[in-house]
Each structure stands twice: as structure tokens, then as C-alpha cells.
Amino acid sequence: MRKHYRWGAMLAASALVITACGDAPEETSTEEETTAEATESAMPTESDMATESAMATESGSETATAAGDADYSACMVTDTGGVDDRSFNQTSYEGMQRAEEELGVSISVLESQSAADFEPNINEFIDQDCDLIVTVGFLLGEATAAAAEANPDQNFAIVDFDFFDAEAGEDITFDNVRELTFATDQAAFLAGYVAADQTETNAIGTYGGLNIPTVSIFMDGYLAGANYYNEQNDANVEVLGWDGAEGQFTGDFEDQTKGRNITEQLLQNGADIIMPVAGPVGQGTGAALRAAGTGKMIWVDTDGYESVAQFQDLILTSVMKNMNVAVYDTIAAGVDGSFEGGLYTGTLENEGVAIAPFHDFEGDVSEETLTALDEIRQGIIDGEIEVTSGG
Amino acid sequence: MSADLDARPAESTRDDGLDPTSPLVTRRRAFGIFLVALAAVTLLFLLGEGGEATFVLRDITGGDPYFQMPDLVVSVGTVVLVVAILAAFAGGIQLARGFGRRTYLVLGLVLALFVFAFLTWATAGSSLNLLAILRLTIRQAVPLVFGALAGVLCERSGVMNIAIEAQFLTAAFTGALVGSVSSNAWVGLLAGAAGGAFIGWLLAVMAIKYRTDQIIVGVVLIVFATGLTSFLASQLLTPNPDLNTPAIVSPIGIPVLSRIPVLGPLFFNHTIFVYGAFAAVLLVHWALFKTKWGLRVRSVGEHPRAADTVGINVYRIRYQAVVLGGAVAGLGGAFFTLDSAAQFSEEMTAGLGFIALAAMIVGRWRPFGALGAALIFGFAGSLSGGLAIVQVPIPSEFLLMAPYLVTIVVVAGLVGRPRPPAADGVPYVKE
């Protein structure tokens, strides 16, 4: 009798150990000890957001050539997708990696396996005296706000979150948190326009992971872009999967099977260009298109032509959200000592958002459409074109 | 589905002489009231919306049927009215004298009609591909069928298998890895079955040899498989994308049959996994109920002492059933990576192993029952996707809940008291 308890205990223990390995903080920190040279040079502090970010890039690269700064440590807490999600966590992490390479800062990352990891991961980094803690994703908003309030001397940057006091109904900012947000609807508007132009079935589709603002903003811009196409060209392209308030969602950012199933339904209901806004789940769309042998997809967050290279021949374009640039700029500002809390918004104008080249489909998009896209881009920048569906 | 009524045919067919407070009469009344209420709900909520609903019954992305199936156009008002009348009528009969052993059949038919009325209402003024919903129902049922069959095999032999999720995940991983390395989906499929069988073997060793608590072993195996596959995925697959691009199975259209309108795309143009799931139901049914081995499996699951007395090696039979069950679940796991998603990602089975477990219970530990339950759950999942396309005024979160809601309603409301094999979960100690 005694023996089998031992076996059970052993299996339980090894299970725990292995899970712990899976969940374990995968820390990648560099031991590079480069001497730091103070480079508080050409960094204007009172310029508007857009130019500031542009400047940060410039001064950032200057810093890199001048010297590294191993005393500065940037730490990242990811959302559940992990740094290899080929989507927003990965893009943000690329900004970290670039900072490591060019600025010589030391970086480390903790991957959250579930929402329960957010707070402990942030606290872990606070204990490690990180100079800047970057939290990635809308879902980390609350945990970041709480940590920022409790630790006023700790600098944070959060990707995809704009603090808002729901009770008072007003926008709030913290002096120690930089909010990196993106007007992705601007770029998605362009994608929606192209999709409406390229569809052969007169219907395009989209679906999301969860109905949260950072996801639905893509779908909204996409819908608005298609509607704008209809207005301008007297067309009647239908958008399946999003009506301006409700739509099709997989319920998570992990289950690619759901992505595949939803895509099959969209295809069978007539859509031939699909934009999944669900991180890695979007690869299920690629699998469905392959199986059906028809249709195209629009990738989001990164240029899918590179990040999901196995589906290159299916990717019409991508709605890029340049989180890597924003994260890098924030770290660079931190190294310079010019870190500032508050809101940064990536737009078409400051190239925080953009649509990717058409790659394999370049020949399919007519000159006319390209010209129209340029005009729309300018129209959005000038504020003449409304990019929300108004739903 | 009517096993517990079969057991008491005299009571359920004619209950005139029964005490009116007996549970059977109460139950009869409850079903009758339910049917009448369903009729009322249909009239109250679904009527009023006018217009026509268009149902597409074709595979519009491909296929070359013998003739093009026209769209089915129905008037919403008529459908709703007819369904409401039928439901009320059935409810009346049920209240007055009861359908006896056909109760569940009638209940199922009326519910199906109600779902159709609901779909018609939701589609009013637009169009929906009904064929796609049914086709996806089958595809979504595939892993559930394999998982539930695995459960049936194990539990019929007296070993509780709540580790179906672990078998899925491990098989999905090994299937993806081996399918990539060998560039052959069939080898990947075998590797998936082997991965599932490995977890089955672990379960068997723990449960049969060391007589550990089987629920705890199951939970531990799930945690173990989740951790191990996630760890290997991030350490092995992520840095080497080549190891995570398995050769995938492609649909095999059955000649002639696949070109029949509606039925062709629905049943005869699928991947090997779908055909395999149906074949597995038949095979497991045959093996359990028509062979000597099956009789032995069931006897060690019901009364191992008696089986032992007549010379059956209880341990060996249990080992065989559990490892075989693991291999069957492994086929379901391989479906995720070799068919559905075409690659492995962490925790990709998303709890379907537990839904498979529910399918086994709803199916009352019978292969065909499990198939039916898996199809119901698959339909709930695929319906929620279809409803999102026609934009029903229901929040997407509720639509996503549908499969789980159906699971709870079916398990709690319709199945009644499930009767597992008598020795299920009880380790056998040879004297």
C-alpha cells in the first residue's frame, strides 16, 4: 500500500515541477556591462506627442551609437499569448529586443499564463528594481493602474490602454505611466476599403478574439472603410461578423480551431476576404482558407507576410500596429531621462499604425485604388474622413 | 436515450393506476408543461417578426454537385406559427396521457423544431448557410466522439477516465511533432494515437497497479500534460517552426456520393478523421457488445470479483481497455493538429476533453449515445457561430456560452440519473 502513495506523490510532484517550468518566468536578461554615458542631449521635453515620439526614435539611435546603458533595465509582462504569439506580445517584445541591441539596456520578460499572473508578475519586477516595467495588453490595465498607484516612483508603460475613470467619466493619467495606444481604426479603415475593392463575392468578413475595445476598434475601422467604399463607388459590399456593436468572437486568443470554424462559416456565407483580430487564433483562418482553396485574409498587428510566413500567398495586406516602435521609443526616453507619463497615440500621421504592402497581391490592386488609398490616408490625417462606423 | 423508461415499461406507458404524486407522473407533467411553455415562448418572442428567411443549402466554396440545390426560402410567420401549434399539441397529449417510451423522441423532435423556428426568426430578412452549420456540427463533434469513446472504453472496464483532456493535448503535440518531422499525416496520426495511449498507460498504471484515487490521478495527468506540452512547445517548437508545420490530411470526397446535393457535402466530403469517428463508433460498439473481449470488459467494469472468479484476468482486461481508450482519445487529439488548426499551440484543446466526458455521460456510456451527445454539443457550438453571422440581438458572450449551457441543461435536465458501470472508479484488489 505504501508504495503506491509514493508513486502518486512522485507523479504529482513531477507534474507540478513541469508545469512550473512551463509557467516559469522565462527571463532573458543581458549581462552586458557597458559603461553609461549620460546622453541627455537633444531631447526637447515640451513638444507634442507626435514629434516627441519621432524625436525619441532619433535621439534613441544617437544614444545607441554613442553608448550603451546596462544600468537601465526594462522589464516586460506579457498577456497570455506569450512573446511568440506572432501578434501583439511579440511585436512589443521586438521593441524590447531592439532597445537591448541598440541601447544596451538589460531586458527581461515574464509571460503571463493566465490573468491570475498579471499582478504577481508586475510585483516581481517591482521587487527587482526595474527602471521601466512594460505591461502588454488591454487586459493588464487594472493591474498596472493598481501597481502604478501603489508605487509612484516606479515607471511603467502599458501597451493598449488608456486610463479612464468610469465613475467620474473622465480621462485620467498617471505621472509614472505612459499609455501607448493606437488608432488602429485608421489603418483598418484602409484595409476595409481595399478588401471591399478586392472582394469577388461582394462580401467581406471579420471576427475577433474578445469584444474588447482594442479588438473591436480594428473591426470598426474595417467596417467603416468598407462602408466608405460603398459610398464612394456606389457599391454594395457587405461586412459579415461585425455590425458596429456586436459581432463574431472566438472568446479567447488561443483556440485556433474556433478561428478555423468561424472562418468556414464566413466563407460559406459568402465572404471571401477575412480579417481575424484574434492574435494566434487568426492562423486558424489560414488553415480554413487552405482547406477551402479559396479566399484571402488580412492579418493584424504585424505584417503577416513575415510573421505568419506559411500563409504568405493568402495575405492581402496587414493592419500594422507598430507597438515595437512605441515600446522602443519609451525605453529610449527612459534612458535619456526624459520619460513622461501620459498618453501616446499611434496614428497614420506619426506612423504608429499603417497598412502593410500588398506583397503577392501587388498586381491585383489597381492604380486607381492605390491613388484612392493615398487620398483617404491624407483625408484621415486631416480629419476629413470619419473612421468609426458610428454604430 | 430512454433507458430508464425501458426499465419500467409498465409504469411509464400506462400510469392511470399510479399514485399521482409518484416521480414518474411528476416528470410526465413537467415535460408536458415544458412543451406548452415552449409553444408559448415561440409565439410570444418569435412571432411578430415578419419577412422571409433564406437558407442556403450548398457548399458555396467548392464542390460540383449533380444539380444545384436551390435556396430554401420560408416565411418566418408561418414557420413560427406551425412550430408553436405542434409544440402545444404535443404538450397537450403529454399532459393528458403521456407519450410513454416515446417521450424523449417527441421531446427531441419538438426541440429541433423550436431551434429551426428560432433560426428562421434570427435569419428573417437575410440569409444563412444552413449546410455550413450542419457540416461544422459534424466536424466539431469529431474530437468529442473520439474522446467520449475513450471514456466509454475505460469506464466500461471500471477505470474512471477524466484525463481525456490530457490525452487530447499530448496526442495533439506528438501528432504535430511527428507529422512535421515525417512530413506524413498518417505517421503523425499514429504518433497521436501513441501519445494518447501513453497517457492512457500512465492512468492505467496509477489506477490499476497502484490503486491511486482515479479522480486525483486524472486531474494530475491533465496538469502534467498541460505543463509538459506547453513547456516543450515554447522550448522546442517555437524556436524551430519546421517542427510545427505538420503534413495535414485533406478531404477525401467519396465518388458519386459526394456529389449528391446536401448529403454529399454534409457526409461524404470529409477528412479521414470524420469518417474515422463514425467508424470508431461502430467498431467500439461491436467490440464492447458483440465480442467475447467486450463481454469481459463490461464484466470487470460491473463486477470484477465475479469476473475474477470465472477466470478472467481483471488487471489485464483493464489495462487493455484503458490503453486502447487512450489511443482512441489520441486520434481525437491528433485531429486538432493534423486537420483542424494545422499546428500545435499551447492549451489548444481548450477544455474539449471535459465536454467529451460530458458527452460520454449524456450518452450513458454507450458508443451511439456518445455520438448523439457529441453531435448535440457540436451543433450548439456551430449554431452560435451561425447566429453571430446573421447578427441576432444577443451579446456574443452569450452565444459563446451556448455549448456549455446546452451541456448543463442536457446533463441535468434530460438525462435523469445516469448509471455508470457499477465498479467504475473502484480499484480491484485480488484476494
Word description of this protein:
Chain A is an alpha/beta fold and 391 residues long. Chain A is built from 12 helices and 14 strands. In chain A, helix 3 runs parallel beside helix 11. Chain B starts with a helix and ends in a 17-residue tail after the last helix. Chain B is globular, with a radius of gyration of 23 Å. Chain B has 17 helices and 5 strands. Chain B folds into 2 domains: 123 residues, no CATH class; 283 residues, ABC transporter involved in vitamin B12 uptake, BtuC.
Structural class designation of chain A: alpha/beta
CATH architecture of the largest domain in chain B, please? Answer: Orthogonal Bundle
Order of helices and strands of chain A: HHEHEHEHEEEEHEHEHEHEHEHEEH
**CATH class designation of the largest domain in chain A:** Alpha Beta
Gap between N and C termini of chain A: 67 Å
The CATH top-level class label of the largest domain in chain B: Mainly Alpha
**What low-confidence regions of chain B span 5 or more consecutive residues with pLDDT below 50?**
1-16
Q: For the residues shown, what is the average pLDDT of chain A?
A: 82
Q: How would you write the strand order of the largest sheet of chain B?
A: 2-1-3
Count the DSSP helices of chain B: 17
Q: What is the helix content of chain B?
A: 55-70%
What count of domains describes the coordinates of chain B? 2
Please work out how many helical segments of chain A DSSP would assign: 12
Compute the number of structural domains of chain A: 2
Number of DSSP-assigned strands of chain A: 14
Largest sheet of chain B: 3 strands, mixed
Mean model confidence by pLDDT of chain B = 87
Residue fraction in strands of chain A: 15-25%
Largest sheet of chain A: 6 strands, parallel
Summary keywords:
heterodimer, A: 391 residues, alpha/beta, Rossmann fold, 2 domains, six-stranded parallel beta sheet, six-stranded mixed beta sheet, 12 helices, B: 431 residues, mainly alpha, ABC transporter involved in vitamin B12 uptake, BtuC, three-stranded mixed beta sheet, 68% helix
